[in-house]
Automatic annotation (TrEMBL):
GO terms for cellular component: cytoplasm. It comes from Manganibacter manganicus. It catalyses: (6R)-5,10-methylene-5,6,7,8-tetrahydrofolate + 3-methyl-2-oxobutanoate + H2O = 2-dehydropantoate + (6S)-5,6,7,8-tetrahydrofolate. This is 3-methyl-2-oxobutanoate hydroxymethyltransferase. PANTHER family: 3-METHYL-2-OXOBUTANOATE HYDROXYMETHYLTRANSFERASE.
Length: 281
């Protein structure tokens, strides 16, 4: 699990066994090309419901549907050979009952071929996580800032400060006891993330949490500089592909308007080997 380039297929028990070892590398993917890029560098790839905001221009993740997660999951599956694939359960697809959660998780697994699902919520979702894991569905939990609860939180602020820390710690313990094989800790204070990581037996995957977590996850488009609407404090940009892409598009537009594109090498002659005849005069 510590290889810098991944060559074997990762399983949920292997992720569990990685607790306290070399940090697990996790990224999101929503498409086949991105899945191919991240596959050999990650232990886990998440088809996150952030796809709604990043690719579909939605204001939050609440409008993401099971159909969307299934379609993006199928695309990602075609690009992965090594990393463990986790698909997010979207808002409204699991909260009603453990039975609803099982039905929809089973749909995501059968339609996309993912190995695990992720769902948001701590103590309130423990019964559901237990129901799924006892029936053979590996679950990654997600506590702290859970974006599907943006309306209840009143925004995307840091969770678990001061007296609220015990709530988040209780959530992490509850999902561990319910059988989750890992848990995302999002946007909580560093000392709390360290404490939770030390206290629970499953790997913690941090995003805006702490370098002490057992792994880290980021939205790939954020680290590549492809999503420009906002930049969370917890993102480090490793590239500025959005700006590069716009410069390339502007150069293309300029060439077209100046009849500099297409060039002679991009057009076809009358015969396969022939060169296009130059017009004389
Ligand atoms: O939807 C998502 O991409 C996520 C990660 C940021 C953890 O939940």
């Amino acid at each position: 699990m510590s290889a810098s380039v991944q060559t074997s297929v990762i399983t949920p028990p292997q992720v569990l066994a990685a607790k306290g070892r070399t940090p697990l590398v996790c990224l999101t993917a929503y498409t086949t090309p991105t899945a191919k890029l991240v596959d050999r560098h990650c232990e886990m790839v998440l088809v996150g419901d952030s796809v709604g905001m990043v690719l579909h221009g939605l204001p939050d993740t609440l409008g993401v549907s099971l159909d969307m997660m299934s379609m993006h999951g199928k695309a990602v599956r075609r690009g992965l050979e090594h990393a463990l694939m986790v698909v997010d359960m979207p808002f409204g697809s699991y909260e009603e009952s453990p039975q609803q959660a099982f039905r929809n998780a089973a749909r995501l697994i059968t339609e996309t071929g993912c190995e695990a699902v992720k769902l948001e919520g701590g103590e309130a979702m423990a019964e559901t996580i237990r129901f799924l894991t006892r029936r053979g569905i590996p679950v990654m939990a997600h506590v702290g800032l859970t974006p599907q609860a943006v309306n209840a939180f009143g925004g995307y602020g840091v969770q678990g400060r001061g007296a609220d820390s015990e709530r988040i710690r209780g959530d992490a313990i509850a999902v561990t006891e319910a059988g989750a094989f890992s848990v995302v800790l999002e946007k909580i204070p560093d000392p709390l993330a360290r404490r939770i990581t030390a206290d629970i037996a499953i790997p913690t995957i941090g995003i805006g949490a702490s370098a002490a977590c057992d792994g880290q996850i980021l939205v790939t488009d954020d680290l590549l500089g492809q999503f420009g609407d906002f930049l969370p404090k917890f993102v480090r940009r490793y590239a500025d592909l959005g700006a590069q892409a716009e410069a390339a598009i502007a150069a293309y537009a300029k060439d077209v308007r100046a009849r500099q594109f297409p060039g002679p090498e991009h057009v076809f002659g009358d015969t396969p080997a022939g060169k296009p005849k130059r017009e004389i005069g």
